[in-house]
Write a structure and sequence with these properties.
The complex is a heterodimer. Chain A contains twelve helices and two strands, in the order ααββαααααααααα. Chain A is mainly α. Chain A is globular and about 70 Å long. The termini of chain A are close together. In chain A, strands 1-2 form a two-stranded antiparallel ribbon. In chain A, helix 3 runs antiparallel to helix 4 and helix 9 runs antiparallel to helix 10. In chain A, a hairpin with a 5-residue loop joins strand 1 and strand 2. By secondary structure, chain B is an alpha/beta fold. Chain B has twelve helices and 13 strands. The N and C termini of chain B lie far apart (90 Å).
């Protein structure tokens, strides 16, 4: 019944002489481009000034993170809470879209189409200045965090953002998750609808409730299918978090504009920042790749 | 019986509204002053200042701290008000909307007074008068007179939305192609690379860049292209704040403090070592 043997190994691919030739041409092309850039671009590369904004030595000579690294931490916090919130929003609205209730279906559809068809920049501006500008003062979040005890302030700063920017951070997380949630919603809907209708009918026939069918039959299969596009969306979320730099959140992209302006080392700053984003996103890709493999082998 | 009750309540309402009307005038006055941002700052114990990084107005030091002329001004202001200070670094394009949306109390960001801006925010007395300067690429525009820059073949760069861009470059060189960048460093880099003829920006940046890249850049004129009036911006409808900040600036002008800080950040480069700017 359970076949736990791995599938037959694929024939190991090897590089052929032709591949080596192609690699050679590719590398030569890259070297040529770098050479040309160096010729045309009048630029004295100076990396150490930018590295000082990644880590610096304090008075005692110990290495401490500087603004670029703290900016990266803000990006990670933003992405972490954004991912959780976006996953919840996406799952709920995705389920709504496959629901038999017309009202739920229309509301979810409205949300998805609205978000997917306006530019993120416009959405963020509208949300930040009109909506969060109205909601946050009413909720009294600013006053609340300001009056919090030193211990809770420390916790908030560790998990979220500097206390003075907390309401901005919250607005940023909501913006980002509402935005990415629409895409996740579509992925979830596609995943659920990809499961054969017969399974629904069979599961209902043996007396499972709709909730149980979803939880025990449909979603476990759907999740396996949607994991790769979902992983792609989460990685996109990390990169998209850069757009909330518009609303006074000190995340990596915003701090980078400050460092570039201060040091006048534009290219170095953005290359370093690009590398930081790459490191984070590629590690996430590896992580999701492993998760995917694990799910495949665990398959009954 | 019933009718009597209705009449009574009518009379009651009329009396009440008469009493209220006499109180309204005093109340409006009271509300106006208690809703002033000055009161808000005092109550909170923290002044929130919107700013944007712009050398040498506000920069990141090597320690990651904010330093600069503006930062000094805002810190001293908070100190004199006996409150703490909190800087809210904001993208330049969104700084006025953010002020209107009460994301911070005031803008202290080297913002020059322009009629357009003044339609949406109020400005205090100026605390600085910066000039706009231009630096040009030697190869492309080495033998240009100032008039030569006003030609459709010329490309001039500037930072989007600042006075240098529209009021100066657009007015002095209407025929030239303006290319707007979101930050200054890119606008200058284009000229160093030879992709644009000249860049217009507020002093002293063009001078510093010219010194740093003396093999590539030169200043077509040593005189300022225009004079700006930089002031603190506050939300409209707040006369108390306007009065308080303007008088504070007046006071700091009279006692020479503003001039002294201005000279330190604009005339010397003693601070350059602390911010890793190799100008």
């Amino acid at each position: 019944m359970t076949d736990r043997r791995p599938p037959p190994a694929r024939k190991k691919a090897r590089f052929k002489p032709f591949d080596f030739l192609m690699f050679g041409i590719l590398i030569a092309g890259m070297i040529y481009i770098v050479y040309r850039v160096d010729q045309v671009l009048v630029y004295h590369w100076e990396w150490h000034t930018v590295f000082e904004y990644v880590v610096r030595r304090d008075e005692t000579g110990a290495l401490v993170p500087n603004v670029l690294l703290t900016g990266l931490m803000s990006t990670l916090r933003l992405a972490f809470w954004g991912t959780i919130a976006a996953a919840i929003i996406g799952l709920v609205t995705g389920l709504c879209r496959t629901s038999s209730n017309l009202f739920l279906r229309s509301v979810a559809r409205l949300y998805v189409e609205l978000i997917r068809n306006i530019p993120p920049l416009v959405f963020i501006f509208v949300f930040y200045f009109f909506i969060s500008g109205q909601i946050m003062p009413v909720l009294g979040i600013d006053a609340f965090v300001r009056s919090a005890s030193p211990e809770s302030v420390a916790v908030v700063e560790l998990l979220f953002s500097p206390i003075g920017l907390f309401s901005n951070f919250l607005a940023g997380v909501i913006c980002l998750s509402l935005f990415e949630g629409a895409y996740i919603s579509e992925i979830v809907r596609a995943g659920i609808q990809s499961i054969d209708k017969g399974q629904w009918e069979a599961a209902r026939a043996i007396g499972l409730s709709r909730f149980n069918v979803l939880r025990d039959v449909i979603l476990p299969q759907a999740i396996r299918k949607i994991l790769p596009p979902l992983a792609g969306q989460f990685i996109t979320l990390v990169k998209d978090s850069a757009i909330v730099s518009l609303i006074s959140i000190q995340e990596l992209t915003y701090v980078a504009t400050e460092v570039a302006a201060t040091t006048t080392r534009v290219f170095e700053t953005w290359i370093v920042v690009g590398f930081l984003y790459f490191a984070v996103c590629y590690s996430l890709a590896l992580l999701f790749g492993r998760l995917e493999k694990k799910m495949q082998t665990g398959r009954r | 019986m019933r009718l009597g009750r209705v009449v009574k309540s009518f009379i009651g309402a009329a009396v009440l509204s008469m009493v209220a009307a006499t109180g309204v005038k005093a109340q409006v006055q009271q509300e106006l002053s208690s809703s002033s941002v000055i009161e808000e700052i005092k109550k909170r114990g923290v002044m929130r200042v919107g700013m944007s990084v712009f050398v040498p107005w506000a920069m990141r030091s090597k320690e990651g701290e904010l330093v600069g002329f503006e930062i000094d001004v805002a810190r001293k202001l908070a100190q004199d008000m006996e409150v703490d200070i909190e800087f809210v670094p904001t993208a330049w394009a969104g700084i006025i909307p953010a002020l209107l949306a009460k994301k911070f109390d005031v803008i202290v960001a080297g913002m020059s007074i322009t009629p357009q801006r003044n339609m949406t925010v109020n400005f205090t007395t100026p605390y600085a008068h910066s000039g706009q300067q231009m630096t040009a690429n030697k190869e492309l525009a080495g033998d240009f007179s100032l008039e030569d820059f006003n030609s459709s073949d010329v490309t001039i760069t500037c930072r989007r939305g600042v006075a240098a861009c529209d009021q100066v470059a657009g007015r002095l060189f209407p025929k030239a192609t303006l290319r707007r960048f979101d930050d200054d460093a890119q606008a200058f880099q284009e000229v160093v690379n030879g992709s644009a003829h000249a860049v217009v920006s507020s002093a002293p940046k063009p001078r510093f860049w010219t010194m740093a890249h003396s093999d590539k850049l030169y200043m077509p004129t040593d005189e300022n292209l225009s004079e700006g009036n930089e002031a603190i911006a506050v939300r409209k409808g707040d006369p108390d704040a306007l009065n308080f900040f303007s008088n504070w600036i007046q006071e700091q002008k009279s006692n020479g403090w503003l001039q002294e800080r201005h000279d330190y950040w604009f005339k010397t480069q003693d601070w350059a070592g602390g911010v890793a700017a190799e100008q």
